[in-house]
Amino acid sequence: MRYRLQDATLVTGRQLEPLLQEAERSGIATRKVLKSLGFEALGSPAERAQAELRLADYFRIEGELARQLDDLTAHLSERKLTYETGAFVTAQMGRSTTLNEALNNLAQYFNMMHGEHYNTVRTTGRTVSLIIDDSAFPYTMRDDVEMVRFIGECVLIKVHCLLDSLSGGLAAKALRRVTLKRPSAASLPSHLRFWQAPVSFGQSNYELCFDHELAHSQMPPPDKIDLTAEGVFSRVIDYLDQLDPSQAHVSYTSKVLDLIRNGVVQQDSVAHRLSVSVATLRRRLEQENTNFRELISAHFVEQATQLLQKGHSVSHVSDVLNYSDIRAFNRAFKRWRGETPAQYARRHAAQKQNA
To answer: What pLDDT does 205 receive?
Structure first.
């Protein structure tokens, strides 16, 4: 079975709005984030009200906000999970030998990190189901019923994308039923057209139900699966981009930034991941008025300033960014920002204290 997204699998700008508002309240300059991802057209609420986004692009924006907030939930939950949680969970699931094992690993590790039992796996003679009970989940916007439903449905989509990407397509083949809490199929939101299995509405929990035999069959070996994308968002975005025939419009700048932000920082490796030559990659970026060195520098300075703002030492930030020595980092940072990292850290601390 070859999973293929329907052209109408979209998210509206109105559904994006609460996510951006929450990020703004947390101090994120969302206009800058949207521009860096190639979505300048979504810069104002009025423009977003009429907009529609591909699922991959919605998760691309959510993922970048999550990264900048260092919170895998992008502050949609009152209980924070560090962004690195995503890479940890995918690494554990990537060691699974069956879909059943992957489901149990996912439930176990997310329960452990949330500190609550939101996820369970139920096995019968015919099926294996992942059940998500979010009735007590600490949603930031719990009073917005429609938004809470939307978040829950997007979580289920992300989980399926993650499972299918790590199982070499076995999850899509094994999926038998999807269960949602939305009362009915009336005025079905277009993002739910993602599902290519029967959907049950009006249930008390979310559920992905898989065929028992296929769930216990051996998954393809790791060398047959692309495990280069780390973390939940990077794997989900990469998976959806490959499925969606309309992804060609995504700028090379955005594609390159996706890879850089997930640890692919060598130009030849980025070109390989994008299935182009280094020369073609250079030419495409030049057409978008940028180059690989500028994108790498912008990423490093962003990482460095975020870490310094959180109070990390200059030597720690230098190590995180893989500089050979602290003097090289000092020189690079001064070239980027016009001041040393120590000067920047002191100035930021003083501004924060006086605010």
So the answer is: 97
The stretch 24-51 carries a mean pLDDT of: 87
CATH number of 293-354: 1.10.10.60
Per-domain boundaries in the chain:
10-215, 251-288, 293-354
Instruction: Give residues with Cβ within 8 angstroms of 138, minimum separation 6.
Output: 77, 78, 79
At CA 284, angle to CA 279 and CA 289, rounded to 5?
Answer: 120
Could you tell me the pLDDT band of residue 3, with boundaries at 50, 70 and 90? Answer: low
What contacts 299, CB < 8 A, 6 or more positions away? 257, 260, 261, 265
Name the more confident of 351 and 157: 157
Q: How far is it, in rounded angstroms, from Cα 182 to Cα 303?
A: 39
Q: Within 244-274, where are the H helices?
A: 252-261, 267-273
Is 131 strand, coil or helix? strand
The whole-angstrom separation of Cα 343 and Cα 237 is 37
Give Cα separations from 106 to 42, 88, 209, 264 (angstroms). Answer: 34, 10, 15, 25
Assess whether pLDDT exceeds 70 at residue 8: no
